[in-house]
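dumping this here so i dont lose it
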């Protein structure tokens, strides 16, 4: 029997032709209006990508017929609704006027169609909508459903529903199911109904009467005036990024009671749901946490949704014991480098300056902060510095505690002190590493060395060594013996942003000109986004706009504007790519900037904590009239931020 399935953790909101779901434009622009395929709607039941909805912990792919999709399914949940009309299964994909509309903002999917003329149903309409997980320990959901079928002649209809009750425990992926059969009168059982034209059939069921808090409380909306295409893209990216990170699932509390407030703990690990490159939208990478969370997702969320940005900081602080255990494993394995035949012997002069217990964050972290990478990528040791840099930003923004951040910084410095050597010129080197480029194994990666040098000078007061930095007569190089032939993704330019090393910033355009066309065209989207960010800051924002568009258009040329990791791979949704493109808008075009000291004369600036400052110096392209962030939250205060060609306006929200 053909089934039309609806899933649990959902409100099935019916109507013959109800309003568009919240989060979608009230009157969706058509392709003819701006020559752009509307990313939130499809009329093609044979589309190549199935949409998903998520509560930030579990995702569900919805097939064209409203059932659970099998391809790319993250969790397959047995929740189905069966409808027979005159003994024939109702299949919306074989009907007329088929339409599905997706709301990235509130995670809703609205579907409707008119069945074939042979059936007497005028129209069916339904909505899938994610519900809120109130806590990581125990969650309650509300499920209601209503199906209205208007008949123009006598028709026999059979309806049977099976509902899912979602119960979150220490393992948030454990489920138990509640089966329930519903009739017109709300009595359990299975019945047929005779429907006449003057008595529409209404089938309803309330599984839970309690309403959980909304999944998506009001957060910053970012809007671009001047390009409908760019505005829709940014709204979609921001919606997916925040939807996949549930702020209610935080680090475990030292107090195990349900009512206890949750805070980051050095004693217990955190759930990593939603923090992987694909969030909960796809099985790829099994939700392991990479540097994507720290260097790409965190900067975007920090300006748009500090509560969700805090989830990333909490995870790293909550898994610090796992990072300590990783260092112990590294020592027990002979302090290996990329080449296992060449162990790294620590320099006693360096280690004596770093008395803290070393911390080595894994490249591919599980929920306990332990390494799960099966490949040599474990030698991308810049990850530990990435975490420390992210936590400094988090402390400055008031979403991480200074003492915990300092502890991580000192432990990270102790790890790098065990990884360095002193060369004949009196400079320190880090040899046998894998660059963020990911294609290269060798000595003295520029980004890694600059990142480590910054960390050491801030974490260890008596540290006065300088790192060896690869360069030639033109500019810095990506690593020693760099032939400048090709890279998987941007690496050296990370020293310009997010690191903002003044020496690299002074060479920003020279480095961009050398490296920007050397990345593989089938690589991740973040390279193009980073190139556009740097060009907007230090070059021509109009050229940067074209570069930015290219950085996402070839990765989203499918239904729903879904982001892929690579142009040739259909797997979605790639949160890292979306975050990278949002960073271009935030830190490039809007011109937001984090600095460790007063940046001087700026159109707008605000002092943070620990001596840090946030400033805004716009670089708008001519085509954009303005960009608005509403509300723009800093240190618990909310503002309306409007950037235009006339300047910067910041008002209390």
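and the seq i came up w/
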């Amino acid at each position: 029997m053909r089934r039309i399935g609806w899933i649990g953790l959902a409100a099935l909101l019916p109507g013959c032709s109800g309003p568009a779901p919240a989060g979608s434009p009230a009157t969706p622009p058509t392709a003819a209006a701006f020559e752009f395929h509307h990313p939130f709607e499809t009329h093609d039941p044979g589309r190549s990508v199935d949409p998903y909805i998520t509560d930030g912990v579990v995702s569900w792919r919805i097939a064209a017929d409203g059932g659970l999709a099998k391809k790319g399914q993250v969790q397959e949940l047995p929740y189905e609704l069966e409808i027979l009309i005159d003994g024939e299964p109702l299949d919306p994909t074989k009907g007329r006027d088929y339409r599905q509309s997706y709301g990235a903002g509130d995670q809703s999917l609205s579907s409707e169609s008119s069945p074939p003329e042979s059936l007497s149903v005028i129209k069916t309409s339904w909505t899938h909508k994610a519900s809120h997980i109130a806590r990581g320990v125990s969650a309650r959901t509300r499920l209601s459903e209503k199906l209205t079928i208007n008949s123009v002649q006598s028709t026999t209809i059979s309806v049977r529903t099976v509902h899912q009750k979602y119960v979150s425990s220490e393992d948030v992926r454990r489920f138990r199911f509640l089966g329930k059969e519903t009739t017109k009168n709300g009595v359990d059982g299975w019945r047929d109904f005779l429907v006449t034209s003057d008595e529409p059939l209404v089938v309803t069921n309330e599984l839970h009467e309690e309403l959980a808090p909304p999944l998506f409380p009001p957060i910053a909306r970012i809007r671009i005036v001047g390009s409908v295409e760019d505005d829709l893209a940014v709204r979609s990216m921001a919606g997916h990024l925040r939807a996949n990170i549930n702020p209610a699932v935080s680090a475990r509390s030292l107090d195990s009671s349900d009512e206890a407030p949750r805070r980051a703990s050095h004693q217990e690990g955190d759930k990593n749901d939603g923090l992987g490159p694909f969030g909960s939208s796809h099985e790829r990478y099994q939700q392991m946490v990479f540097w994507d969370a720290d260097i790409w997702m965190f900067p975007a969320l920090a300006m748009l949704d500090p509560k969700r940005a805090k989830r990333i900081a909490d995870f790293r602080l909550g898994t610090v014991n796992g990072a300590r255990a990783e260092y112990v494993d590294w020592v027990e394995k002979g302090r290996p480098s990329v080449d296992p035949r060449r162990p790294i012997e620590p320099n006693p002069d360096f280690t004596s300056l770093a008395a803290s217990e070393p911390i080595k964050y894994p490249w591919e972290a599980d929920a306990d902060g332990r390494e799960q990478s099966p490949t040599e990528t474990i030698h991308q040791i810049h990850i530990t510095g990435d975490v420390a840099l992210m936590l400094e930003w988090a402390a400055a923004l008031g979403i991480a505690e200074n003492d915990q951040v300092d502890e991580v910084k000192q432990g990270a410095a102790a790890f790098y002190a065990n990884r360095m050597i002193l060369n004949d010129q009196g400079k320190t080197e880090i040899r046998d590493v894998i660059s963020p480029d990911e294609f290269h194994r060798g000595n003295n990666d520029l980004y890694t060395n600059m990142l480590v040098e910054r960390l050491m000078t801030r974490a260890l007061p008596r540290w006065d060594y300088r790192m060896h930095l690869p360069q030639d007569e033109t500019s810095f190089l990506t690593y020693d013996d760099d032939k400048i032939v090709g890279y998987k993704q941007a690496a050296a330019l990370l020293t310009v942003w997010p690191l903002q090393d003044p020496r690299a910033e002074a060479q920003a355009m020279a480095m961009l000109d050398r490296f920007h066309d050397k990345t593989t065209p089938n690589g991740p989207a973040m390279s193009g986004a980073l190139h556009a960010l740097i060009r907007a800051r230090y070059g021509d924002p109009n050229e940067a706009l074209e570069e930015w568009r290219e950085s996402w258009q070839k990765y989203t040329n499918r239904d729903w504007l879904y982001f892929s990791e690579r142009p040739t791979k259909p797997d979605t949704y790639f949160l890292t790519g979306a975050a990278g493109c949002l960073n271009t808008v935030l830190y490039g075009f809007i011109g937001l900037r984090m600095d460790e000291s007063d940046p001087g004369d700026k159109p707008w600036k605000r002092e943070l904590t620990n001596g840090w400052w946030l400033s805004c110096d716009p670089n708008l392209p001519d085509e954009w009239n303005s960009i608005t962030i509403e509300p723009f939250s800093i240190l618990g205060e909310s503002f309306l931020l409007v950037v235009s060609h006339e300047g910067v306006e910041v008002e209390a929200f």
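The longest helix spans residues 228-243.
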